[in-house]
From TrEMBL:
The lineage of its organism: Eukaryota, Fungi, Fungi incertae sedis, Mucoromycota, Glomeromycotina. GO terms for molecular function: zinc ion binding. It comes from Gigaspora rosea. Keywords: Metal-binding, Zinc, Zinc-finger. InterPro entries: Mss51-like_C, Znf_MYND. This is MYND-type domain-containing protein. SUPFAM superfamilies: HIT/MYND zinc finger-like. Residues 21-64 form the MYND-type domain. Gene3D superfamilies: 6.10.140.2220.
Length: 429
């Protein structure tokens, strides 16, 4: 789980955009004037005061020095000729140079800051590329989109108008997530017992009402952040509904879930799985088995703390981490047959998933895969069909997808949402 310090170091879009102090999130200088002090070495970090700059320096120093070195070499700042594709290429090239200068991989903060650095949305120049090295002009509403001149703003205005609100929502959600104003891993303990699952309610709003959280509105930023986490258990529950009868569902006492291709997203969502126990009240033990090469080292059978009500009823939520491929896991002694196999935001074409998928089809295990985009979902379906899978639901919009917009760093003005599309399969066609 991310520590407070880790979260602080992540830096938000508003900080990267120079709208908030990189250290304390203040939006104006100490003396009340609007524009923050810019680090004179890297020109990429902003502070409300000298003392904030000082406080951030031990953290900022290495990256700052590497950027300064890069800035001194004019040929690496070749013109992108106003082309987005060139700008994307140059960014990656710069990141390679920065990694070489640092003699290590960039941290997630560093690559995030670099990928999302301010640039003109029309000509793709950064303030470093401008003649006078003058600052870019931010949008007065979202503060995270820039143009180099009023002229370019006039050109970009109509396109940005339709996207500005999504940028604003993204920024609000980020504040909630990174400034620790609320514990966003929300697993409510109260529920309306007159409503018996299955099925799940028809949408997020009716779900929140059922869970006695009517103070939240589907469109509020806080609610969007909640859906990003709760999307995990609800997407699983909605898939279970398709594979098992009502009686089967209510008779599970030991539910085993495989999370394949798992990483940070699944680990951060571990607490929210208690929602499955609240909705399926007969489960005694919920076993979450995470399998993925990005996971930390192997951990077996760790008990997570449950809410007082579940604890009193002696119910258990256990997780195991297997930092390996599903292929290796499936032939290991650790293998436990699951009731459902889940792959969140998975690109089955990306890795060598073929033999794992063949195994899942052969064993007739119920599977659900989610995707960020329709295109990725369609590609997954094609790949699954080619391997002979019986598709139950193919690349359909997931009503339990996250409603929290995330910025696609490699494509300007593109947003994505976790678990937006889903595909269900079981056995051979
Ligand atoms: Zn500050
Ligand atoms: Zn600096
Ligand atoms: Zn421009
Ligand atoms: Zn805007
Ligand atoms: Zn509970």
């Amino acid at each position: 789980m991310a520590s407070k310090e880790e979260l602080r170091k992540r830096k938000t879009y508003l900080q990267i955009a120079g709208f908030e102090c990189s250290n304390c999130h203040k939006t104006t200088r100490e003396d009340g004037t609007r524009s923050l002090l810019r680090c004179t070495r890297c020109r990429m970090s902003y502070y409300c005061s000298k003392s904030c700059q000082k406080a951030d320096f031990s953290f900022h120093k290495q990256f700052c020095t590497a950027i300064e070195e890069l800035s001194n070499e004019d040929e690496v700042w070749y013109s992108c000729n106003g082309k987005e594709s060139e700008w994307n290429k140059r960014k990656i090239y710069h990141m390679q140079l920065l990694a070489a200068a640092l003699d290590r991989d960039l941290t997630s903060y560093e690559s995030n800051a670099w990928l999302n650095q301010p640039k003109c949305h029309v000509c793709f120049r950064t303030s470093r590329d401008l003649e006078s090295r003058s600052a870019l002009i931010p949008c007065p509403n979202c503060h995270v989109v820039f143009c180099c001149s009023n002229e370019h703003w006039e050109q970009h205005q109509s396109k940005h108008k339709s996207l500005c609100q999504t940028y604003q929502i993204m920024v609000q959600c980020e504040k909630i997530r990174y400034q620790g104003t609320s514990e966003t891993l929300w697993a409510p303990e109260e529920w309306d017992e007159s409503y018996i699952y299955p099925p799940l309610p028809k949408d997020w709003n009716s779900y929140l009402k059922w869970r006695k959280a009517p103070q939240f509105n589907q469109l509020d930023a806080i609610c969007r952040v909640i859906t990003n986490t709760l999307s995990v258990p609800l997407t699983i529950l909605s898939a279970l509904e398709r594979f098992y009868s009502r009686n089967q569902l209510r008779s599970f006492d030991d539910l085993v879930v495989h999370l394949i291709g798992a990483g940070k997203y699944e680990v951060l969502a571990l607490m929210s799985f208690e929602e499955i126990m609240h909705i399926l009240p007969n489960i005694k033990t919920l076993q979450l088995i995470l399998i993925g090469i990005e996971l930390p080292s192997k951990t077996i059978g760790v008990s997570l703390q449950c809410c007082p009500r579940c604890t009193k009823a002696n119910r258990k939520r256990i997780y195991s981490l297997h930092s390996t491929s599903y292929d290796e896991y499936s032939v290991s002694d650790d293998f436990i047959t699951p009731q459902i196999v889940v792959g969140f935001n998975i690109d089955l074409n990306e890795e060598t998933w073929n033999s794992s998928i063949e195994f899942l089809i052969e064993k007739e295990l119920p599977c659900i895969f989610t995707s960020y985009s329709k295109e990725e979902a369609n590609q997954n379906v094609k790949m699954l069909k080619d391997l002979g899978a019986k598709i139950i639901v193919g690349a359909k919009e997931n009503k339990w997808g996250s409603t929290m917009p995330l910025v696609e760093p490699q494509e300007t003005d593109k947003f994505y949402y976790n678990n937006y599309y889903r595909t269900l399969l079981k056995g051979k066609a």
